[in-house]
Every structure is written in C-alpha cells, then in structure tokens.
Sequence to fold (104 residues):
Amino acid sequence: MLEGKAIQAAWNDVQDVSQGYTTKPYIQTTPHSGTDDQCCCMCNKPLRRSRQQRMVHLIDGGLSFLHPKDEALYTSDEGDMLWFFIGPDCAKKLGLEWTITLEP
Ligand SMILES: [Zn+2]
Fold:
C-alpha cells in the first residue's frame, strides 16, 4: 500500500492522456473490497451525509480516475465503474479539480 508522499508522487507522475482524456491511478489508502456508498472510496472512512459530498468517476474497471473536464471526451465502456464518494481529506490529496460536488 502506498502512503503519504508515495501517493502524491504516484499521482504527480502518472497523469495519463494516452486514451485522449486525463486519468490518474485509483489508489486505496485503506484496503477494502468493493465500494460501500456510505464510505470514502479511498480510505473507506464513513462519510457524513449532512455535509457537501464529493464524487469521483472511476473507469478502466476501477483502475483510474477520470478528470471531470474530460467527461465529454470519454465514451462509456465496460470498464466504466461510474461515480463513487470520496471524503474531503482524500479529495484534497487527489486534487479537488478531480472531483465533483453534490449539495446535501
Ligand atoms: Zn478518504
């Protein structure tokens, strides 16, 4: 498992545009199976529903985050895992621009 600076380094190095849209690798900071929609998809901490929620778009069978600015360039395929919740701390590490917000 990657932690702290290693995560940042992985994300900084790997912004892939080879498929015509920008992606970053999806990293779980706490190992968990599946994606509980009440929990952060990275650290698996429970989310507070009263707060503004952030979501990320997972593609490539769950291997990559898709940048929201490139939604129009992405054609949904069998690897499209759709949207998952991400906690505020993990969203900051990932980069808020990689998330969309939902009002409570
Ligand atoms: Zn988290």
